[in-house]
Amino acid sequence: MIYDLCNLQTVRSLLERYDLAPKKGFGQNFLINPSVPERIAELSSSFADHSKPAGVIEIGPGVGALTQYLAGEYDKVVAVEIDRGLIPLLGEVFADFDNITVVEADFMTIDLYAFLREHFGDIIDAGGSVSVCANLPYYITTPVIMKLLEAFPLTEKIPLSSIVVMIQLEVARRLAATPAQSDYGSISAEIALRADAKKLLDVSAGNFLPVPKVASAVVGIVPHGGIREVYPDAPADDADCLVYSAKVSELITLAFGQRRKTLINAVSEKYPKDKVAAVLEECGIRPDIRGEKLSAADFCWIADLLGK
Ligand code: SAM
């Protein structure tokens, strides 16, 4: 049986039958306009190069609005849902789909490497690809994205071919911002160290049940080769490179912690002003520069010279 999973009446009656109501604490805003999840699934499948066979991880299937369209685009869908109450409902609506697996778990506590091996080992071994697609619960948007990007810190390439997720519009703008844009901040620089991010689609609040307070947008994130691609002089030794990466992140946090200050003043608690001034001069960067004008590569260069 095929369910109309974006139909308001269907969603309401399914929730009622399983004695459920949207839970605010789990960020449950279900999509009720089918054209939106259909478009997100298409974007997920077309946005990046995916080797075949292709699998996808969905975080938070809810009642399955997006899951059903992902099943049409991918060879295998593994949907991770934290809400125990939704598991039997999902079992019913996807009983006739042989390429959907629903896993009851908190995505934030999953060991991603073991998860990929367990559910996508066949696809990875066959030279295929795994992506992530979700209408993310807004209370953990950034932690989910950083978990995905930080799970494989020093592999040549993160073994996820794309991350296409719907998030708050305001956060989407920040993730995809480039230096000197008003939305550019520490998260923009942190993302740029690991991936290329692009805002793909705006989605208004009226497309959800219940209606959220904020507008949403879909972002596409494609992991690149990581810090060694951004800054080829990063340490070749893995352990040294991890320590160095932490220093770069610390510098970014300090620089944006007091964004009205010049970089020299913002990081002065940690680094002597004359040393930072000398490093900026060596990099050919103006001494009155603020963090908001510096690219991920600039932060890497400055952190490298500060450590010498
Ligand atoms: N995908 C559905 C849709 O588009 O209609 C539901 C999206 S709703 C915004 C977010 C979903 O994520 C909910 O089903 C919620 O229960 C689930 N969720 C929240 N926190 C989670 C977590 N830590 N791990 C897995 N799923 C989670």
Estimate the helix proportion, in percent. Answer: 40-55%
Task: Indicate the structural class.
Answer: alpha/beta
Tell me what the CATH architecture of the largest domain is.
3-Layer(aba) Sandwich
User: How are the strands of the biggest sheet laid out side by side?
Assistant: 4-3-2-5-6-9-7
**Spatial extent as radius of gyration:** 21 Å
Total E-strand runs: 9
User: Between the first and last Cα atoms, what is the distance in angstroms?
Assistant: 65 Å
Largest sheet: 7 strands, mixed
Strand percentage, roughly?
15-25%
Stretches where pLDDT falls below 50 for ≥5 residues? none
What characteristic shape results from the CA principal axes?
elongated
Number of helices: 13
> H/E order of the elements?
HEHEHEHEHEHEHHEEEHHHHH
The total number of structural domains is 2
CATH class of the largest domain: Alpha Beta
Compact description:
The chain is of the alpha/beta class.
What does this structure look like?
The chain has 308 residues and is of the alpha/beta class. It contains 13 helices and nine strands. S-adenosylmethionine (SAM) binds next to strand 1, helix 3 and strand 3.
